[in-house]
Amino acid sequence: MRILIKTFKALSDPNRIRILKMLQVRPLCVCEITEVLNLAASTVSKHLSILRDAEFIIDEKEGKWVWYKLNDEENQFYANQLLPLLKNWLAENKNVVEDKHLVAKVDRKEICGT
Amino acid sequence: MRILIKTFKALSDPNRIRILKMLQVRPLCVCEITEVLNLAASTVSKHLSILRDAEFIIDEKEGKWVWYKLNDEENQFYANQLLPLLKNWLAENKNVVEDKHLVAKVDRKEICGT
DNA sequence: CCTTTATTTCGCCATATAACGAAACGTAAT
DNA sequence: ATTACGTTTCGTTATATGGCGAAATAAAGG
C-alpha cells in the first residue's frame, strides 16, 4: 500500500507530469528540464528524486551532467502499468505540446552546456 | 491537466484506496464505510466527495441513506482506465483483505441501520 | 411539529508538500 | 590547487491535505 500511494503521489503534480511527458521524447539532463519548466534547479531536482523514488525514471551520470529517462525496464510494478496509460494521455494539452516541441528541437548545448 | 491531477490526488490516500477496494465487493452506504475504516463520519464523507469528484464512484440516495458504488460507466475517462488496474492491485494487502472480508459478510443493519 | 438518524458542511489544528535561495557536493578545466 | 559549472541537499515559507467535533441538512417516524 505504501508503495502504491507513493506512486500516485508522484503523479499528483503538474510539473512532474510535464517532466514525464517530456521524457517521452528523449532522455534529458536536469538543466534542460529546468529551462523548459522555468523553475529553480533545486525544485526540479526534488521533483526528479520523487519520480525516481517511485520508479518512473532512472538516472545516469555523464561527467558533470545527469541524464534522466523513463524507466522502461520490467523491474518495477506500478510504474510499468501506468507509464503506458500516460503515453496516451494529454497529447493535446497546450503545455505538454509546447514542452515536447521545445525538447525535440533544442540543443542541450544552447540551453545549459558549455 | 487539472482533471488528471485531481484524478491522481484522489488515489493518493490509503483510506480512499481502501474505500475503492471495498466497493469492489459491493455498493456500500456511508455508515458501513465509516464503521470499517474507523474514522469520523465527516472524514469519510470528505473522502467520498473527493472520489466522486474524480469520477471513481457515484452515489445514489435511498431514504436517509446514501449508497456509493464504483463508477463503471463509460462516461468518464481516466477513472475508466485506472479502476481496472486497481482491481488487480493490493489483492494480498492485509488491510484490504480484512476490509473486503468484513464488507462481504456483515449486514448493514447490524452496523448502522435501525 | 418535533425527534431521531444518516450524511454533509464548516471551522479548526497538525502535518505534508512545493516553492525558493544558499550552501554543499562532484566533476572538469584552468 | 583553484575555479567554474551542473546537480543535490538543507532550511525556510506559504499553501494543501487529512483528521476531528460541532453545527447544518435531509429524510423518516412518532
Overview of the structural elements:
Two copies of one chain form a homodimer. With 114 residues, chain A is an alpha+beta fold. The first copy, chain A, has one domain (2-102): Arc Repressor Mutant, subunit A (Orthogonal Bundle), CATH 1.10.10. Helices cover 59% and strands 12% of the residues of chain A. The first copy, chain A, is built from seven helices and three strands, in the order ααβααββααα. Chain A has helices at 2-10, 14-23, 30-37, 41-53, 78-88, 94-105, 108-111, and strands at 28-29, 57-62, 65-70. A three-stranded antiparallel beta sheet of chain A has the order 1-3-2. The longest helix of chain A has 13 residues, at 41-53. Chain A is globular and about 45 Å long. The model of chain A has no long low-confidence stretch (mean pLDDT 94). The interface between A and B is medium-sized, with 19 and 19 residues. The first copy, chain A, binds a DNA duplex (30 and 30 nucleotides) through helix 3 and helix 4.
Give structural attributes.
59% helix; 7 helices; globular; DNA-binding; three-stranded antiparallel sheet; 114 residues; alpha+beta; Arc Repressor Mutant, subunit A; homodimer
Structure in a nutshell:
Two copies of one chain form a homodimer. Chain A is 59% helix and 12% strand.
